[in-house]
Amino acid sequence: MMQNIEQKLISRINEHATPLRIMHVCGTHERTISKYAIRDIISEDVQLLSGPGCPVCVTPSKDIDFAIALARSGKVITSFGDMMRVPGTMGSLFDARSDGYDIRMVYSIDDAIKIAKDNPALDIVFFGIGFETTAPSNAAATLRGLPENFSIITSHKLMPPAMEILTQDTNVDGFLAPGHVSTIIGTDPYDPISEKGFPIVVTGFEVLDVLLSIAMVQDQIISGRSCVENAYPRCVNVEGNLKAREIMYHVFKKTDSNWRGIGMIENSGLALKKEFEQFDAVNVHADIYDKTSHEKRASEIEDHENDLYEGCICAEILTARAEPSQCPLFGRRCSPEDPVGPCMVSLEGTCYNWYKYTRNK
Ligand code: SF4
Hints:
Layout: H1 2-15, E1 20-24, H2 27-35, H3 38-41, E2 46-50, H4 55-58, H5 61-72, E3 76-79, H6 93-98, E4 103-105, H7 109-118, E5 124-130, H8 135-144, E6 150-156, H9 159-169, E7 174-178, H10 179-185, H11 191-194, E8 200-203, H12 207-222, E9 228-230, H13 242-251, E10 252-259, E11 263-272, H14 281-284, H15 286-296, H16 314-318, H17 350-357
The structure holds iron/sulfur cluster.
């Protein structure tokens, strides 16, 4: 039965296919699209483009460098696993761990807090990354109370401002909006983007979800509409998770934020509010933060404008101006085992997924 519905959707998409560029902004969508070869089973006219949907890919090298500098000065860095292998200008957190510095992988901020409570003589720093999906749990932990020997590098990003930027200078016709982020923010924040003429469909992560949302974007284009539609109602509603957002904005405030490969985007990040600044690693360790910024100028990063190593085209990939196979380093100098750029590290990275699922076709 399910197979039948998928086949019907594929036929429908292909029957109505006209040149169309649909961008998703979610690493898990890229994984589904690559893993199940959705680009191959629908018409070539319907292009599925990958946007900046992978949090570790857009975390600026300055934040990674800061974490490494803190580790070198004797602090304990705690981080999610996929952040550990992303290269900054001074290598990755894994490289620093190989050099003997105390860097520990954690699954949540609660793991990091436990390390702090178990080791009151140590300075514990948590590397807080992620979109609207992870920020509420970090905010909730902060509200419950953090140990005195604990601080956070706040590198959270907000998705709607990035989508807004991508409508300005990319050739995108419509968007698949991220299911996870939308469970928190709801569908309302996408309205201003759709009102500019961009169809948006919020969707989940099964093949059926993705096919349905492609067909729905296509329908909007064909009928000359642009609105926000929800193909993921089993998890997402119009208003989102009010409680999670209340907690998030109790602790964090919006701030301009630097997206690796894209640049500064107004009000697209989160910073700790003044009443929590005693836990802000940038405040607590201001001397090291300032010194890291200075070191960056003498770093190995050659493409300063895009914050990337020479030859890495993650900036083009994150903005759908290129595909991973167009990078001269893809599968040669750059692989998941030895990533040159951030898009090759995480399960959510576009280069990683293309390497894993499309390279040998
Ligand atoms: Fe960057 Fe590697 Fe992707 Fe090329 S293949 S764009 S070097 S991450």
